[in-house]
Amino acid sequence: MWRDLAPVGRSARSGGYFRQPFTAAEGELRAWFAEQAAARGLALEADGNGTLLATWGSGDDAVLVGSHLDSVLDGGAYDGPLGVVSAFAAIDRLRGRGVVPTRPVVVAAFAEEEGSRFGVACLGSRLATGATTPDAARELRDREGVPLLDAMAAAGVEPRLGPAPWLTRVGCFVELHVEQGRDLVHRDAAVGLASEIWPHGRWRFDFTGEANHAGATRMQDRRDPMLSYAATALAAAATAGASGPRATFGRLDVAPNGTNAVPSRVTAWLDARAGSDDALEELVEEIARAGSERASGDGTALAVTPESVSGAVGFDVSLTARLARVLRPWGGPGEVPVVPSLAGHDAGVLAAAGVPTAMLFVRNPTGVSHSPAEHADLADCLAGVDALAAVLEELVA
């Protein structure tokens, strides 16, 4: 399965992946998912939000398992697909042992988890749970101005946005994911569990000024929003500090975007994360305050708009403790590690919606993620499959 996925959406130049939702590359992945379901005789279902589901068994109180197939721009191979591939492989393990499930197992591939095309992370799961409304989703546009509904239709996905009926049949959700950090490396463990997800979000900073000639306009006569942005980015780094909260400006849009022109507008997107909801709010407020003060001195203006904000989420304590007992053989020298996640996941959206949820992590030797250098050793990936199979057997056998 991993060999089949390796070339899809991969850049020959960087080695990274461009698997944005409702594009040709993601369409290949969706076709691959359907082929894997058919090869195992699993019932295939697609909801109107773009999420794919493959069911082993029948009935309610299902164990949902899986992740997502889309990537960030120039992303790594493991973030998302590892969880989907491992879910199919874990079912193969259970069938090979003659396990007959007493409750259904549903493999999910959620749509637009990364928010790389339409700007809202975990869009498929947020629509399924009602965290994002259909009306709000209909207003979403990608960077070229293509509406979400048009992109879905062009990809052959019939849009029926809104809460998903299949979610009422789910008893719990277990998501396996490559670790995005090095906790498991430091603990010498191939597999771990997540305790919580830090609150995080995306805010759009619109700096506006006055376009002018780069040569003819004196420095003191300019109203340059690029200077306001640059000072705000430095303020964000200083406010977050060396450890603890995270503040990142990773995307810019500049108008008129000319080499010999002072910009009229700079739009920058802030990704911010902190250990509590209050700490996150304080972090963003301080960055916005610093930006507004600088803009006032530059003769520019700043407007800040939240685009996607997720509060702190703790995973189901009893389910996590139950799985920790099952996963002791994969925990390294001691108990299986239970660590926080500073990255957002569909698991966090479902947990916030009241679905009992747990997360498994597979060790990442460098900790690098959202990059072509993202990696997990094959031995650890196979350990993840065995661990996930043990978890599913505990829950359905």
Automatic annotation (TrEMBL):
UniProt KW GTP-binding keyword: no
Cofactor(s) needed by this chain: Zn(2+)
Record key words, sorted: Hydrolase, Metal-binding, Zinc
Cofactor note: Binds 2 Zn(2+) ions per subunit.
UniProt superkingdom: Bacteria
GO molecular function per UniProt: hydrolase activity, acting on carbon-nitrogen (but not peptide) bonds, in linear amidines; metal ion binding
Chain sites annotated for binding Zn(2+) 1: H68, D79, H177
Residues reported to bind allantoate: R202, N260, R273
Residue positions binding Zn(2+) 2: D79, E114, H370
Family to which the UniProt record says this protein belongs: Belongs to the peptidase M20 family.
Protein's recorded name: N-carbamoyl-L-amino-acid hydrolase
